[in-house]
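Structure in, sequence out. Go:
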């Protein structure tokens, strides 16, 4: 992968000037490369990794990883079914994977109930979906290569007899 893309993948806030210094190129050439990557769709968006445990509020969302076993469609394979699944607004990510299941779908909802309703009422009953296994995310330790720090919780007082 190009050095510019590697730097931006690790730090989307890096300026063209900073990148130019790191790779010893002209800032104008770096800006031109970035614009080209954006136009071609190689760079899709810039993203901040948020430690949601530190900013939790009443609107916190529940995230689930759902393994989906599907029957591929003739002449279309997995792509058409995956497209139907990732079109739901609850789905934040969708991957074709190897192993026991075919797709790994990441879903977010307001509560366990809304996520389980999504699975029961929208996902499981879809044509060509043969089975699902839902795993609710309890705690994140690392995301997108970033180790997430957690709030220190009140430690229990040791009791001795």
């Amino acid at each position: 992968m190009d050095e510019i893309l590697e730097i931006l993948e690790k730090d989307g806030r890096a300026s063209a000037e900073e990148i130019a210094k790191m790779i010893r190129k002209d800032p104008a050439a770096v800006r031109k490369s970035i614009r080209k990557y954006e136009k071609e769709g190689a760079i899709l968006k810039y993203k901040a990794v948020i430690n949601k445990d530190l900013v939790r509020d009443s609107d916190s969302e529940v995230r689930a990883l759902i393994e989906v076993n599907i029957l591929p469609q003739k002449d279309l394979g997995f792509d058409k079914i995956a497209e139907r699944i990732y079109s739901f607004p609850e789905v934040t990510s969708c991957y074709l994977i190897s192993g026991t299941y075919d797709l790994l779908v990441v879903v977010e909802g307001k509560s366990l109930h809304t996520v389980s309703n999504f699975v029961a009422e929208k996902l499981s009953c879809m044509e060509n979906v043969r089975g699902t296994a839902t795993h609710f995310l309890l705690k994140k330790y690392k995301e997108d290569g970033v180790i997430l720090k957690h709030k220190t919780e009140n430690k229990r007082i040791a009791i001795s007899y």
